[in-house]
Fold this sequence. Notes:
Layout lengths: L2 H8 L31 H11 L1 H15 L3 E2 L5 H8 L8 H15 L1 E8 L7 E5 L4 E3 L5 E4 L12 E4 L5 E2 L5 E8 L17 H19 L5 E7 L5 H15 L6 E6 L8 E5 L4 H18 L17 H35 L7 E2 L14 H7 L15 H12 L1
Parallel strand pairs: 9-10
Antiparallel strand pairs: 1-12, 2-3, 2-8, 4-5, 5-6, 7-8, 9-11
Amino acid sequence: MSQNKAIKTRAVAVENRVDPYFLGAAKVHNDHFWRWGDDNLLPVALALMARRSTTHRRIINDKADYIAGKGFTCDEQQPLLLDFIRSANGEGESLRSILHRLAFDKALFGNAFLEVVTDPAHTFLSLYHQDASRCRVARDSEHILLHPDWSNFHEKEARSLPLYPRYEEQADGTLRTMIHYKDYEPTYRHYGVPAYIAGMNVSAIAYKTDRWNIARLDNSFQLSGVMMLDSSVDNDAEAERIVRLAEEKFAGNPGQVMFVIREGSEDDHSRFIPIESRNEGDWQSLHEQATSDIVVAHSWFRSLSGLDYTSGFSSERILQEYEVALNTVILSEQADLTEPIRELIASVLGVDASSLEIVNRPPTRSKPIYMKVWEARKADGLDYDPEDERQQQFLSEITKYNIKSIN
């Protein structure tokens, strides 16, 4: 074994365990950047919407989980590659956990950022996920600027990293670069656009219909209306005080009941005028339509989003839709995310990463784990050979092998 190869097998990840962002502010080569959205805060708006819309958030979570898979498998004759899968950086994060964050950002923002760290001798390789919301493309389109708060940008707090395949030396002596993943969209050059862009309005509708139900619940489902109060007041401030006091004591959710004060007379004519609403059905239909449109906008499937569980659990439908999702969405996203990683492993560590594969497993099983492989192939109408030693394995043994490989 050569001396160079021996060095590479000893060191895979950076020894420091701090977030690369806090290594110290490097000089920003270009303080001008391309705005992400009209106000440069589109990622903040997208993140906020994902926190408020139940179905929208569930789909993003599920897509990230399915794309990250159950981990990785590779050629067991590559010990350095196995070590890298288990610990891809100095913080001890597995390659699967990094891939999951990249998949989550790409599903949410249509963009994801991966920081790559090595040294001039290429004795190690470390990968760090960077929060897409704090990354912007520099005006020279050759660097990525990182800043903790883009609503209050200060040049001294920003870091600049070159876009892959260019590397630049940092203050700690390491070489670093940034990989920018982005979903293609015509007329958008510097940033990608999330797949659900056409469903942003319906995501807002789903959130607002949920909020409307919460408001009704907070108001104990009382009727909205106008409360006419007979009272004598000396000035507008006193009238305002009485209205606010009445709201706090009787209105439940402020704004459900409007209080009006009029000049009192000898007889008290205070009364409540209800405003009846009979549009509950319209609201429910609107919410259901918005939920369906969200699923379509994400290019996703209802049974994989937990939307049809109340009408019965159909494992066959889930498996069918998972198969379609696997071949139309999941595999293509996995290829986009892992191709640069394989290239990095080969170019930096000098290791053949062609065997690196993501383990995909459906959310439910259609066959018992005590079946043998040849029996399962026979049940699926595939060619089978009961005498083949590999097909003599039980499905449980294959599952166990996959679990062992990814850990």
